[in-house]
């Protein structure tokens, strides 16, 4: 029989797969139902292949609040590879600040003109209208825990910021973060909606409310 060579899923695996797809459909259904906020964390699913791990709602709120205070009235905020902070800032619908998102994942282009495609491998390949030192604070979360990724992202951060930097990355990157950006570790412990294996921390180069 030709069918003998076709691998079959066990009934348990098949049931688990069907449950996963059902949950996914239900989530998508909730998103399209009336009153869904397109800026809610989780409105765009994490893609682990892109090393995406969204912050918990509490962490995103805390970082967004910190950014607004640090930016000041009328301030400009750039979120580099930190979409869940961007989403939380947009939830605020603030009139006293503006924000943009620099992100590799083109799904975030649904946010219109505030979305800027960004590949850390080309740190200064940015639109001409993104002027140097035009943001009051830059929040960045490099996608990979490597010095190469941090170093290249640091180029982008230093180009964009007027001075203030809020970096979110692994605790093991403390030495490299100080070396490339002059930032120091904060007391605040950021958390993710799914627990990460690596200890995660925040770093700043100014007197912040995260201590």
UniProtKB/TrEMBL annotation:
Main localization, broad class: cytoplasm
Keyword Transferase (UniProt): yes
Location in the cell: Cytoplasm
Keywords in alphabetical order: Cytoplasm, Methyltransferase, Transferase
InterPro entries: DNA_methylase_N6_adenine_CS (IPR002052), Efm5/EEF1AKMT1 (IPR019369), Mlase_EEF1AKMT1/ZCCHC4 (IPR041370), SAM-dependent_MTases_sf (IPR029063)
Biological-process GO terms, alphabetical: methylation
SUPFAM superfamilies with a match to the protein in the record: S-adenosyl-L-methionine-dependent methyltransferases (SSF53335)
Reactions it catalyzes: L-lysyl-[protein] + 3 S-adenosyl-L-methionine = N(6),N(6),N(6)-trimethyl-L-lysyl-[protein] + 3 S-adenosyl-L-homocysteine + 3 H(+)
Presence of the UniProt keyword Kinase in the record: no
GO molecular function annotation: nucleic acid binding; protein-lysine N-methyltransferase activity
A Pfam family reported for this protein in Swiss-Prot or TrEMBL: N6-adenineMlase
GO cellular component term, pick one: cytoplasm
PANTHER family: EEF1A LYSINE METHYLTRANSFERASE 1 (PTHR13200:SF0)
Protein name: N(6)-adenine-specific DNA methyltransferase 2
Native species: Tauraco erythrolophus (Red-crested turaco)
């Amino acid at each position: 029989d030709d069918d003998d060579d076709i691998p079959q899923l066990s009934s348990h695996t098949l049931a688990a797969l069907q449950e996963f797809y059902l949950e996914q459909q239900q989530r998508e259904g909730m998103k399209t139902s009336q009153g869904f906020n397109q800026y809610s964390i989780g409105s765009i699913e994490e893609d682990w292949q892109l090393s995406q791990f969204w912050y918990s709602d509490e962490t995103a709120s805390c970082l967004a609040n910190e950014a607004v205070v640090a930016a000041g009235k009328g301030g400009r905020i750039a979120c580099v590879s930190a979409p869940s902070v961007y989403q939380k800032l947009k939830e605020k619908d603030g009139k006293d600040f503006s924000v943009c998102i620099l992100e590799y994942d083109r799904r975030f282009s649904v946010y219109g003109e505030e979305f800027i495609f960004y590949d850390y491998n080309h740190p200064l390949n940015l639109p001409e209208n993104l002027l140097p030192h035009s943001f009051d604070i830059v929040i960045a979360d490099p996608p990979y825990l490597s010095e190469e990724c941090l170093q290249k992202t640091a180029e982008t951060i230093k180009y964009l910021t007027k001075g203030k930097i809020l970096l979110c990355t692994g605790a093991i990157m403390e030495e490299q973060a100080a070396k490339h950006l002059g930032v120091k570790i904060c007391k605040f412990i950021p958390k993710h909606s799914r627990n990460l294996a690596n200890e995660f921390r925040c770093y700043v180069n100014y007197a912040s409310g995260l201590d």
